[in-house]
Design goal:
CATH class: Alpha Beta
Distance between the termini: 31 Å
Number of domains: 1
Oligomer: single chain
Helix content: 10-25%
Order of helices and strands: HEEEEEEEHEEEE
Shape: globular
Number of strands: 11
Strand content: 25-35%
Largest sheet: 6 strands, mixed
Structural class: alpha+beta
Radius of gyration: 16 Å
């Protein structure tokens, strides 16, 4: 079976994770990656555990000057445009992941930020402490296509994100 990193979605995801790691380190932030993922069902992702519970971690533990937080990195080919919401644009994560990140926040007391690489615009977006923002479920809540095909999704308005950078142009 091919690795998730060999798929177009996996390569795009890894590109986004690598950029977040560099962005944080360039800012003098100490970063512990928790991105060593293997498997397709979330059972091989980095976790914190008790005998009864396994909780998937966000991609990066970050710390600087006595302050620490988690960052989750997502790479999206483009935002979702939802006609029923006045054509607003959204980026989402799997509902399953949100549940894990809420538990991580509850256990560690640390906020979780969401970094999205938007491939169509070449823009990196950041939603600080996104767990305190009520997500939107669009349509039946299930995504079609991509790495999350068939998964229940929760979404955040693109307008709530802060643009933090633009990807360097790729020359052929």
């Amino acid at each position: 079976m091919a690795s998730i990193w060999d798929t177009p979605e996996g390569k795009l995801g890894k590109e986004g994770e690598n950029w977040v790691l560099k962005w944080r380190r360039d800012a003098g932030i100490y970063v512990m990656p928790a991105t060593d993922y293997s498997g397709t069902d979330g059972t091989h992702a980095p976790m914190i555990r008790t005998w009864r519970e396994k909780i998937v971690l966000p991609d990066f533990y970050c710390a600087k000057g006595g302050v620490s937080w988690w960052d989750e990195a997502k790479s999206k080919s483009e935002p979702l445009k939802w006609r029923m919401h006045g054509g607003k644009l959204y980026h989402g994560i799997e509902k399953r992941q949100l549940g894990h990140y809420l538990r991580v926040n509850e256990i560690t007391g640390l906020p979780v930020g969401l970094v999205v690489y938007e491939q169509c615009s070449g823009t990196y977006l950041y939603l600080k402490n996104f767990l305190h923002i009520e997500p939107v479920v669009l349509g039946n809540g299930r995504i079609k296509g991509g790495a999350s095909d068939g998964a229940e999704m929760v979404n955040y308005a693109r307008s709530d994100f802060k643009e933090i950078a633009h990807a360097p142009s790729k020359t052929n």
